Amino acid sequence: xxxxxxxxxxxxxxxxxxxxxxxxxxxxxxxxxxxxxxxxxxxxxxxxxxxxxxxxxxxxxxxxxxxxxxxxxxxxxxxxxxxxxxxxxxxxxxxxxxxxxxxxxxxxxxxxxxxxxxxxxxxxxxxxxxxxxxxxxxxxxxxxxxxxxxxxxxxxxxxxxxxxxxxxxxxxxxxxxxxxxxxxxxxxxxxxxxxxxxxxxxxxxxxxxxxxxxxxxxxxxxxxxxxxxxxxxxxxxxxxxxxxxxxxxxxxxxxxxxxxxxxxxxxxxxxxxxxxxxxxxxxxxxxxxxxxxxxxxxxxxxxxxxxxxxxxxxxxxxxxxxxxxx
Length: 326
Prior knowledge:
Layout: H1 2-23, E1 35-41, H2 46-61, E2 70-76, H3 81-93, E3 98-102, H4 104-111, E4 119-124, E5 143-147, H5 152-162, E6 168-174, H6 178-193, E7 197-203, H7 209-216, E8 222-225, H8 229-233, H9 235-242, E9 249-251, H10 254-257, E10 263-266, H11 269-284, E11 296-297, E12 304-307, H12 309-315, H13 321-324
Parallel strand pairs: 1-2, 1-3, 3-4, 4-5, 5-11, 6-7, 6-8, 8-9
Antiparallel strand pairs: 10-12
Helix pairs in contact: 2-11, 3-4, 5-6, 7-9
């Protein structure tokens, strides 16, 4: 009888070990834990892609490589808010150890579903104003990350330097992006202080870009576009109209310069991703928690002036000498 009890106990232990292996999807063959990271990126465009690349590279530099000791589940919503919400639900249901949300709508989609899984956000202008954290200095919950707030006031000043005769200026953005609304308010205040007549021109989705921009022809001297994901994705459509009609467009980030924007004081989104990746490393290693991890920013001295000289020539704009010295 005693031997039977010993055998029975041994069988229970064996079965328990099989159960752990079967349920422990985060274990490697050697038994070491694989940290899982779900990624919810709002849309594919150069700036957001660069932030994701920087995030992955920062992890790799710290020794965490996808497919080895971490597993990254990258998902892209292709600019659709409903898809971003569906992705958020999937990533939470998969019980990832950490979720990276790229752009404000993607971040809001994830934060609305879970208060337990740590979330890092990036390419979000103002996490506090977007309802993601209690404050940018002390988030107080399961969300932290990095902000892509650009020097909007300096960008408006740049507009007046390149287009000194400008009077009527439209701020073009997507009304569903809270980060863009925040920047629009800053731009209107800055432009008004400089004597400009600044007003909003909004779209609700990418399908309205062509119509709205076309309506501005003949009514504006220049356009300002903040770091708006929908407009950035459709910037080629914007510039095909504006440049053909002699309307300069000052933009919020460098990727829009490559698609026909005139100029910006921008940030390096790859560096922003690196910054976010370093935060992730601290979380993986148990050295920090989102609740007490302040939102981080690219340093002011790392903003870069970018001018599309081909567009300037097309528009007949003479670039001031002091701006040519970068």
